[in-house]
Design brief:
Blueprint (H helix, E strand, L loop, with lengths): L3 H6 L3 H19 L1 H4 L3 H27 L4 E2 L1 H13 L5 H13 L17 H12 L12 H4 L1 H4 L2 H8 L1 H20 L2 H28 L19 H6 L6 H6 L15 H11 L3 E2 L6 H8 L4
Antiparallel strand pairs: 1-2
Helix pairs in contact: 2-12, 4-5, 4-6, 4-11, 4-12, 5-10, 5-11, 7-12, 11-12
Length: 301
C-alpha cells in the first residue's frame, strides 16, 4: 500500500485551488448580503452566467463533444467550447476522456467516480459519495488515457483552438460579469458584486450541480430503465443541471441528445438543441425511437 506522503504528492493542487476559490467567493458574497443586500443586477448576472456556462457543459462538453449526439458548424462548436471552459471544469479533452471512461466502466472497476463500486455499509457509502462528488478530481489526471478515449478530439481543430486559449475563457467568465456589474451600477461596488455573483458564486453552484450527477444520481432516485450500473433519475438534479439529472435515461441511451424522455422531465439542454435544429444550426440529432424506449423500459421489471 502506498504511503500517505506518496498519495498526497499525486493530488492535483490546481483542481483543489479551483474548487476552494469559488467556495470562498460564494461565502464572501453571502457575507456581503448583510451590509450591501442583493440587487437585481447581481441576480441577473448570476442566472445568465450560470445558464450559459452550465449549457457549455451539458450541451457542449457532454452531448456534443462526448457523445456526438448532434452535428453542428465549427463556429457553434467553438462557442459551446468557450462556454464549457467558462465553467472551469477542465479542458474539453480531459472532461470528455473522464466521462467516456465512466460510461465504459460505469459503477465497475475503472470507473473514475463511482460512489458504490466495492462499497458496503453506511460509512463506506458516505465515503463513496464524497469520492464521486469531488474527491476523484484530485487524482483524475494520473489515470487519464487521452489516446484511448479522445483520439478523435485530439485531431479536432476546433477543440485545439479552444484549448489553446483555455485560461482566457476562464478569466473572461470571471471578469466579464464584474465589468458588466460595474458598468450598470457605475461603481466599484457593482463590479465587485458582479464578479462575486456572476463569477465565483456562479462557478461554485455550477460545479456542485454538475458533480451531483456523479454522486447523487448514482445513489438516490428512480431507475425506470434497467442498466448495468446504479444510474438514477433525480428530479431536483434534473432541473438544476438543465436535464442532466435524468441520469438513468442517459445511461440507457447514452447517445441521445434528449435526456428528459418523458414530457414532464424538464430538459433545458434538449430545448436548446431543438432550437439549434429549428434554426438549422444542428443536424443529425439523435434521439431514441418510442419503440426503443418502450422496449428497454419493458425489461425494467
Amino acid at each position: 500500500m502506498e504511503s500517505v506522503t506518496v498519495v498526497r504528492k499525486r493530488v492535483d493542487y490546481l483542481v483543489l485551488l479551483v474548487s476552494i476559490v469559488p467556495l470562498l467567493g460564494f461565502a464572501v458574497a453571502i457575507w456581503l448580503l448583510w451590509p450591501w443586500g442583493f440587487d437585481l443586477t447581481s441576480l441577473v448576472l448570476f442566472l445568465v452566467f450560470y445558464v450559459l456556462s452550465a449549457l457549455g457543459i451539458t450541451v457542449g462538453y457532454h452531448r456534443l463533444f462526448t457523445h456526438s449526439s448532434f452535428k453542428t458548424y465549427p463556429a457553434v462548436k467553438f462557442l459551446f467550447g468557450i462556454l464549457g471552459s467558462m465553467a472551469v471544469e477542465g479542458r474539453i479533452v480531459d472532461w470528455v476522456s473522464d466521462h467516456r471512461k465512466h460510461h465504459q466502466c460505469s459503477d465497475d472497476e475503472g470507473d473514475p467516480h463511482s460512489p458504490v463500486f466495492g462499497r458496503v455499509g453506511i460509512w463506506q457509502r458516505f465515503a463513496g459519495f464524497i469520492h464521486a462528488h469531488y474527491g476523484w478530481l484530485l487524482f483524475a489526471g494520473k489515470s487519464r488515457d487521452r489516446n484511448r478515449y479522445v483520439s478523435d478530439l485530439l485531431q479536432d481543430k476546433v477543440v485545439a483552438a479552444v484549448d489553446r486559449l483555455f485560461l482566457v475563457w476562464v478569466l473572461g467568465g470571471l471578469l466579464l460579469p464584474g465589468v458588466i456589474g460595474g458598468f450598470v451600477a457605475y461603481s466599484w461596488r457593482g463590479a465587485l458584486l458582479g464578479f462575486l455573483w456572476g463569477g465565483l458564486a456562479r462557478m461554485f453552484l455550477v460545479h456542485h450541480v454538475t458533480w451531483s450527477t456523479n454522486s447523487i444520481c448514482h445513489m438516490f432516485g428512480t431507475r425506470p430503465f434497467r442498466s448495468q450500473d446504479d444510474s438514477r433519475n433525480n428530479s431536483v438534479v434534473g432541473i438544476l443541471a438543465l436535464g442532466e439529472g435524468w441520469h438513468n435515461n442517459h445511461h440507457a441511451f447514452p447517445k441521445s441528445a434528449r435526456h428528459g424522455l418523458s414530457w414532464w422531465q424538464f430538459d433545458l439542454s434538449w430545448i436548446v438543441i431543438r432550437l439549434l435544429k429549428i434554426c438549422r444550426l444542428a443536424w443529425d440529432v439523435y434521439t431514441p425511437s418510442k419503440w426503443a424506449i418502450e422496449a428497454k423500459r419493458a425489461t425494467a421489471a
